[in-house]
Amino acid sequence: xxxxxxxxxxxxxxxxxxxxxxxxxxxxxxxxxxxxxxxxxxxxxxxxxxxxxxxxxxxxxxxxxxxxxxxxxxxxxxxxxxxxxxxxxxxxxxxxxxxxxxxxxxxxxxxxxxxxxxxxxxxxxxxxxxxxxxxxxxxxxxxxxxxxxxxxxxxxxxxxxxxxxxxxxxxxxxxxxxxxxxxxxxxxxxxxxxxxxxxxxxxxxxxxxxxxxxxxxxxxxxxxxxxxxxxxxxxxxxxxxxxxxxxxxxxxxxxxxxxxxxxxxxxxxxxxxxxxxxxxxxxxxxxxxxxxxxxxxxxxxxxxxxxxxxxxxxxxxxxxxxxxxxxxxxxxxxxxxxxxxxxxxxxxxxxxxxxxxxxxxxxxxxxxxxxxxxxxxxxxxxxxxxxx
Length: 388
What we know:
The chain has 14 helices and eight strands. The protein has helices at 38-54, 65-80, 83-101, 111-124, 136-155, 183-192, 199-208, 212-217, 261-281, 302-315, 324-335, 340-347, 352-359, 363-378, and strands at residues 2-9, 12-21, 27-35, 223-224, 229-232, 234-239, 242-247, 255-258. It is α+β, with helices and mostly antiparallel strands and 388 residues long.
């Protein structure tokens, strides 16, 4: 085994190492360009020859970004993320990243290539509304996935540095995607949605702060009426028409939520309605133990709930999503003086910092209310009064 080093230009050297013959008797070489001094090229040549001798050398594969992203989806992502997350990743890769960046050779991909894609996507990247761009929040999802894929390429020793670095991370304006309605507006929403088949789900979301998928996956076996608590350990996922259960994404997502008296009354009403339906349908009733379910006991369709909610919220002339009901619940708790740590645990956040980051815009008014209560509590004590 031998190698040659040839000068290609200023501070550029080509290494060429003979490694034998192929099946047709043609000579095979490993070729690599090294930037720097000649001794850098000599060091790299010895490293390759040593690796070949020990059987530890990995020849760099020439892949396009599109090819590697598909490999990532088929292997790493399929083994490590939930099916709903994989479905979302696949849509981002196939509908957005591959058409714009997929043909670029992975080793030649630069931060500038990615930056140009982000700039274009903000202007015209929305596939459902031609001529309009993606939101910064959506673009941040693209960046997070691209960074994760390229980080795996670094670990696989296909590239040396991740070009989707922090410096080009899209900046998102905080709270732009969060809509919080007042209790009066919530009351109006419930009045307008009085004929909605998902009315009880809307009420339950406002009263517990649970996610849509968690609400639809809760079962009567999770409810403890005596303690007035409900245990959250699973969620409902929907992928390409299939609806199934999965465990909560994180340990903190598995939690016990205390219920208000009004929520307990709501659940008692739901149970009574289900008992009537079960009696009427007999053997045709699907007893899956779901608290919120179709009239025949089958699990509800998450997307159908969302579409119905969007209709009624528009009818009520309100701007919010079903997930915003969770934000409303958190804001009501904080406005009532509940400690952010308790709010964090109730929502299933992995840390109180996430809660503070999400709702920090509410804290100034909460602090003012707290000071007013402190003054009221300590006002009769002379030590806190004015000193003449």
